[in-house]
Amino acid sequence: MESVATVKVSKRGQMSLPASARHRWGLDEGGEVGAIDMGSAVLLVPGGRPAVQRALATAIARGRYERAVADVDDPDLQTE
Which end of the chain has fewer beta carbons closer than 10 Å to its terminal beta carbon, N or C? Predict the structure, then answer.
């Protein structure tokens, strides 16, 4: 898969991940994907909410983590 793909969203909000991403992420039989609404974009992370929390913690420098978490609008993502 190219690093950028177009994905259609149905009227019910459903969408399909490209097959190559499902294979790489181990989602051939289905599974959870976490979504981070970044305002002008949505970032998808395989593994659901726990994976999103780990990705945020890893991506943000330790000294700025608490401040960044405080700025997150979703209270479910504000925990470690």
Answer: C
6 touches 17 (CB < 8 A):
no
Under DSSP, is residue 16 helix (H, G, I), strand (E, B) or coil?
A: coil
What residues does each domain of the chain span?
32-77
pTM more than 0.85: no
Question: Are 17 and 34 within 8 A, CB to CB?
Answer: no
